[in-house]
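Before a computer can learn anything about folding, someone has to put a protein's shape into writing. The outcome of that step, for a single protein, is printed below:
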Amino acid sequence: MKLRRGHFGGGQSNLWPLYLLTALLLVGCGSKNQETASPPAVDEEFWEAYYLQGAKIGYGRTTLKSRQRDDGSVVFDVDSLNHLTVKRFGTTTENDIEMQTVETPEGRLLSFRTEVAMGPSPTISTGKVEGGEIVITTETGGRSDTARLPWSRDVRGFRGIEQTLAEEPLEPGEKRTIKMLMPLVNQIAEVDLTARDVEKTSVLGVDAELLRVDSVARLPGGQSIETILWIDEDGEVIKNRVAALDQESYRTTRELALAPGGNQQQFDLGLDLIVPVDPPLENPHASQKVRYRVELKDSDPSEALASGSTQKVDATGPHAAEVTVFAARGGKLAQPGEPAAKPGDEFTAPNGVLQADDARIREMAREARGEAIDPTEVALALERYVNKVVSEKNFSHGFATAADVAETRSGDCTEHAVLLAALLRACGIPSRVAIGLVYVERAGGFGYHMWTEAYLGGHWVPLDGIRGQGGTSAAYLKLTDSSLAGTSAYSSFLAVARVLGQLKVEVVEAN
């Protein structure tokens, strides 16, 4: 059967999950080694090479194969593998994203499967279009969560951008809007495509005349991802770029995609993305109150940073804000304010990341709390316990589940955060994780971080298992929080992606 060109194009939909994965890796690195198998017989395939800050970090391979189903209809199986090798604080790890879709000859999505290995237990999502909705099941560590999203014939699958550009290439000055399912976060995005002019751009060292297309994907909740595509006269995406991290993808041959990266200095996601602070924050983790001036190059920090009981954000301009952070010690808030709304079930129930009903988690909770009954005393005991029991502090995992951490007793901030959140729920205390930045003394600036919040006395109170100091200082900047239920386990990291490469932080007043 003749293949429809709309099934193929450049690597735009492949770069998006890599962009999200990069945001995930900023607060924890995964480790999964995979040998490159000999490619099976397929109808068509293409390869991509991935670069970060000019250094090669991985490759992508996508194949398409037609098959006839039992009812006589023909469908296409589209398989993608994205392999990423990154360094964080000197530790090099390898990570894979696998995506499979089943599509009609017209390019309509019928079903999908994605697998991401960020820790010992991979996260597997499957989806199937059933009438006017798509049913999505996410499974991690043997536990599954199901969500249903409205679906219509105008919603495209993971490769929606490539399909629309290949079916009907844009002309300079033309605009187009499509809807598509965003991989990994499993949300429907509205994507605006704006064709600029044909321009000269470098493609793996060779100049090419290509049409520039600006892409803005808008997701529920106000989050967005901006990319730049360069397409040829047939609508094929040859190159694309996410400006925030200077992350690029190139359509290329198998040989070049798999070739070593050369002698470029490998970008370190931990060290090279530290947000410097001038002047440095002295004795940061003893600070009680700090006022910061925060600037974002292309957006409003008052929208990007969270306001709450420990952090007040006041806009001072379109790209600037004053952020006042208060310490929380001993389970008490310096400026409690109005009580928070009572948490719903998503903050108390076990889920695929926070397995509060796991036998090991429940046993650890009993051991950690001892004779403590008061919720605040229990929470502080759990924080001390996590700091002690996760004895091997390293960056070998990306985003391990609480049950994984209970077994390995190792990890970085994400592992401490999820284990503490699960232990809190096992003790009947609502919990969530916070995502943002913490001041790193040895680096003289802020690094991306995850910690835990417990609902105590009508307020969300921060705790940090990796420090175990009975709360947090004023050396934290919070972006968002998450229950880690269902798709929010990954979508919450888009808050990090939103500020990458744009933050500027200045200390106005400390203590």
